[in-house]
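Bumping with the actual sequence this time:
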Amino acid sequence: MSFGLEKCRTVNVYHRRIESSRGFDLQRGGKIDAMTENDTYKYLGITQSLRINHDEIRSKITEVYNQGLKRILSSGLNGHNLTKAINTFAMPALTYTFGVVNWSDTELAKIERSTHVILTKYLIHHPKSAVERVTLSRANGGRRLIDIRRLCVKQIRSLRSYFLSQTASPLHQAVIKADDRLTTLDLLHADNYPPLETDAEYKEAKLQ
């Protein structure tokens, strides 16, 4: 069984910069090459180097989401199964990155608009129909697609709550103190964010 050295890399970091290195020679032969400043690696599916390139990842994830959405819409599924397929197979490409990659409301709103355009192109959504219907439940006359902006906020709040609940863990407390707007969670200022609206408030706002 081989160890897979071709997939291994070493990296030397000094003062937040990657320094050139000749790699690492193994005692039993073989060599692990060093990463250069332009090299990246994947950790849990997220491409990164010293830090996450949020712009690049957002662009790639949006492209993957749109491709998946179009394939599902071309499948000929009926209304209920079509919605379920979109929520199950297309949306996770976006939702997996929530809380890790920085998404602004403007960027998520742009994805929602492109979703409406694609749904209209495939004759799933009428061009003059209210866009609020897309994410409303079927009981309220909607299609019940996942509201990505609301889910993004919920996921971030959930991750924040997890870290803040780990009061007995020195590691989690150290992470909270260090995260001064370094990540999407902004754990040091978690108390400054307003509470998430309830399902009833969300529904009422959509129906107005």
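The tokens above came from a reply further down the thread. Residues 53-208 form one domain.
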